[in-house]
Amino acid sequence: MGKTIAEIILSTKSRSDAHAGDIVVAQIDLAFVQDTTGPLTVRQFRAGGFKKLANSLKAAVFLDHAAPSQSREMSNDHILLREFARQTGALISEVGDGVCHQLVAESLAKPGDLIIGTDSHTVTAGGLGAFACGMGSSDVAIGLGLGRTWFRVPETFLVELKGKFAEGVSAKDLILYLIGQIGADGATYKALEFGGDGIGGMSISQRLTVSNMAVEAGAKVGLFPAEETTCRYLTEQGRADHYTPITADGDALYQRVIKIKLGDLEPMVAKSHTVDNVVPVREVIGTKIQQVSIGTCTNGRLEDIEIVARMLEGKHRHPDTRLIVTPASRDILMSATAAGYIKTLLEAGAVILPPGCGSCLGLHQGVLGDGESCLSTANRNFKGRMGSAEAFIYLGSPATAAATVVKGEITDPREFL
Amino acid sequence: MLTGKAFKFGDDISTDLIIPGKYAYLRSNLPELAKHVMEDADSTFASRVKQGDFIVGGNNFGLGSSREHAPLVIKMAGVKAILAKSVARIFFRNAINLGLPVLVCDTDSIGDGDELEIDLQSGVIKNKSNGKQLAFGKIPAVMLRILDEGGILPYIEKHGDFRL
Questions:
Q1: Which residue is closest to B63 within chain A, CA to CA?
Q2: Which residues of A190-214 are buried (b: 16+ CB within 10 A; e: fewer)?
Q3: What is the pLDDT of residues A113-155, one digit of tens each?
Q4: Which of A5, A99, A115, A287 sits in a 20 to 30 Å window from A392, CA-based?
Q5: Burial class for A80, CB neighbours closer than 10 Å (0-12, 13-18, 19+)
Q6: What is each CA distance from B14 to A232, A276, B44, B62, B140, in whole angstroms?
Q7: A273: preceding bond cis by omega (within 30 degrees)
Q8: Which phi and psi (to 5°) does residue B45 adopt?
Q9: pLDDT tens per residue across all 164 residues of chain B
Q10: Secondary structure of residue A324 in the 3-state scheme
Q11: How far apart are CA A365 and CA A65, in angstroms?
């Protein structure tokens, strides 16, 4: 019987013939933590009696959620994490380098890798064909020490994409549409695998956006095959040697097949307070917005910033709407600066935050007040997520965000084409 | 046998409702962090919950972040089990890793404040307030072995590795 991408990777990493439903113990290629879940991971690592990292894996520590730190407490957590990295030889990514998931994609993840991270959006690296999975601190602590962890091999839903996006529509609209269709628990414990001729036209940036939000449908991983586009991306990153093609077997067994024609999609938003509360933008046009947040591990890449800058060229934010842009990494910020996008954004009235998670989790740098509404390109709109439990978060694409900040209310980006 | 009072919540209780990201700076000060347990879902919960009580949810309990602090602050509040119709993957694994049972069952017949008696061995929940009896789904065998040892750290301490 043929295998899905999830089964292929877990078979290789567990050196067994793994099929959906099996329990396997698999070797980890990369395990990482970030600054809000890392300190507990370090404590559990030590409580578990571990002194050093397993030889077989790469380990990384990212200071990105509070970057730079907004409080004495977080600064002390950063000290703890830097010490841990020094003691164990784990890679350390400093404040301002960027969001863990973007940096993993830029420089660490390889197709076919098994990656665990103490952050639910670890799934992002699935865009490069890595089995990348979010876990808690205890699981990752033990993974760091032993070099392996256990998995239930997931059943896979194949999402078959056909054709090309219409103008003004992008990967964010696709993943919002999918989550709206199957629900926030529609793929719980499952692997989502993306295939079909539609993926050929999708850049790695777009694939990372889609994989990033697989967890918002409950999925364990969101996997793209690794093919020419992946090869090109890795080559551009100076890591052509990291490329290996990965595709599912022709006779792989899928639990469910979902077909989507990309050309039929339109701009979508998720209304507060759940990510599956998805409607076409046209149904919420005119909703007043006080803050537009662009960035994060979902949509803070160069392509996203380029779309926004092109739309905002010669325009200005609405006087009642603030614009906060958080590039996902230092490289992205440098490229966006070199291309003139940052100048355009500043002229349009934007605040540019240092690369990192920014206001996404409500810790700092753009916390919402009571009764305020935010249109965000991030991945979560839960009640209280961005600070106030009395605030409302709408999730949309970079194009929708750009159109919205100009008019001060939710706007269909196709108006600006 | 576990006995205690049910605190009833609805569907989609996210990790942000359990312990908001805005308190991430308190995560190295667990007693302070734990004061905010369930704050945005029910601001009175932390002051009313007692040792031995239960949290009862609906669908997709614990969706969202991988923060293990979510089941951790629930456990610190004295809660002995979480009952829900369905549970998000990472939260489920995190709770079991901390030795906190998560029981999947139809929670519709449980009301806020109901007195429950739970037999983890037989898989039966008795609702002493309305006389109804419920069965909960089997915890997967791997997770049961981890739970039986009191969590993943004691499990690894005892076995030295995964013995699945």
A1: A218
A2: bbbbbbbebbeebebbbbbbbbbbb
A3: 999 999 999 999 999 999 999 999 999 999 999 999 999 999 9
A4: A99
A5: middle
A6: 38, 13, 18, 5, 23
A7: yes
A8: -55, -50
A9: 999 999 999 999 999 999 999 999 999 999 999 999 999 999 999 999 999 999 999 999 999 999 999 999 999 999 999 999 999 999 999 999 999 999 999 999 999 999 999 999 899 999 999 999 999 999 999 999 999 999 999 999 999 999 87
A10: strand
A11: 11
Question: Residue ranges of the domains in chain B?
Answer: 2-138
Selected from 3.20.20.140, 3.40.1360.10, 1.10.150.120, 3.20.19.10, the CATH number assigned to the domain covering B2-138 reads 3.20.19.10
Domain A5-262, CATH homologous superfamily name and number: Aconitase, domain 3 (3.30.499.10)
Interface test with B, best of A46, A64, A382 (most B CBs within 10 A): A382
A367:B162 CB<8 A: no
B36-66 pLDDT per residue, tens: 999 999 999 999 999 999 999 999 999 999 9
Q: Which among A66, A71, A11 is positioned nearest to A37, based on CA atoms?
A: A66
Of B22, B28, B72, the CB nearest to A39: B28
> Which of B68, B86, B156 comes nearest A48 by C-beta?
B156
CATH 3.30.499.10 in chain A, residues? 5-262, 269-416
Maximum CA extent, chain A: 60
> What is the C-alpha to C-alpha distance for residues A53 and A37, in angstroms, rounded to an integer?
18
CA distances from A325 to A294, A311, A386 (A): 5, 14, 15
CATH of the domain spanning A269-416:
3.30.499.10
Query: From the list A73, A218, A383, which residue is nearest B40 (CB)?
Result: A383
The CA distance from A102 to A305, in Å, is 14
The predicted-structure confidence for A69-114, as pLDDT tens digits, reads as follows 999 999 999 999 999 999 999 999 999 999 999 999 999 999 999 9
A302 Cα distance to chain centroid = 14
Q: Is the pTM of this model over 0.90?
A: yes
Residues in chain A within 8 Å Cβ distance of B93: 135-136, 139
β strands within A94-252, DSSP E:
114-117, 131-134, 148-152, 156-162, 191-195, 221-223
Size of interface A-B (CB pairs under 8 A): 144
